[in-house]
Queue: 4 jobs
Job 1
Amino acid sequence: MQPEQAFGEVLRELRLQRGLSQEQLALEAGLQRNYVSLLERGHNSASIKTLFKLSTVLGVSVSAMIRSVEQKTAASSRRSQGI
């Protein structure tokens, strides 16, 4: 799994856990809804500035978000290697 795809999955999970729509998340973070959609689908990479905006709205640290992305990519790598 590519990091962008893993980030998108983490972002979607956090957003849904908070009960936010893409539109609500985008509005509170000062982003466009279609950009949030592109991030969640792994089509775009978030800038550092965007990471901080999203993490603030989602109530989680940037480091926790990145740690979750790392865990997803590592788990995917282990699965693809048959471990």
Note: The chain has a mean pLDDT of 94.
Job 2
Amino acid sequence: MKQTLGIDLGSVRIGLALSDELGWMAHPWQTLSRSPRSVEEIARLAVEKKITTIVVGLPRNLNGTYGPAAEHCRAFAQELQKQTEAKVVLWDERFTTAMATRQLQEAGRNQKQQRSIIDQAAAQQILQDWMDAAAAKQQ
């Protein structure tokens, strides 16, 4: 079965989330430390998990414009596309970290507990939003 990978790209950490095999639910997967080899590591993981689509969160400013962080995400996505056969798409990630933080707080996680999984939760939100939009488009 095919799976989709969601990425929340940060300057220090990269949150990863995976879809279920039916493409209905996104699940937090792991957090990587950002390094010069991050693209290669993610491309390797994509092959291992038989990923067909990779959704990279694209940060936008509240007014809809793009800043330096968006340019880093675009460059990362372009490099990743060169190293994998999976389709790489960019997806608006506005408010995903805030939503993930709120959900973790509602689940009873304090800030210290959130630190290790917030990036995964943000990647999960990015991936779930993309899957929901794709499902709505098919209806």
Note: The mean pLDDT is 87.
Job 3
Amino acid sequence: MSIGRIGRLECDFILRDNELNYSYVQVAYTINESKATEDREYAPLEMIQDNYPKYVATTDYLLQKRNGIRHINLLEFMKSHGRF
């Protein structure tokens, strides 16, 4: 696991398994309060040009998809033993 930079933007977590498959994760308490917060969390993931899974993890219950990036509720994800 590492943290990555894409230009001036930062990706919170870059995960890699033993087979060199990657996942990218942005974490925020909420993105539903403002469009600016939503855009700030999605922007680094939208700049990554590969096809590995990308996630925005929040405590929000109103979830969305944007440009193939999955918005997940982190609490529900952990309860269901989800994997990135």
Note: Residues 35-47 form the longest helix (13 residues).
Job 4
Amino acid sequence: MARTFVWHPSKGPRKTSKQNLPESGSVRIQQVRSGIGHSWRMRATLEAIGLKHHQDVVVKEITPGLRGQLKQVRHLVEVTPVEGGK
């Protein structure tokens, strides 16, 4: 059985602000913190999203899978909706 996710005392925030993601459309994702010092799962999630390095930006279509990925690394990324699509 999988372990419940628990924040490491020095990794990540005590509270994160609510992500107001749109139901559909595109979002701009910017990596604002480095993956160094975080678990291999978080680094793999950043890579799966398409972020290669600190301050990298990608624009992606919002999907349920992307929503889950963003929730896992919400303290490392900044997400903003894109008005005109891609």
Note: The mean pLDDT is 86.
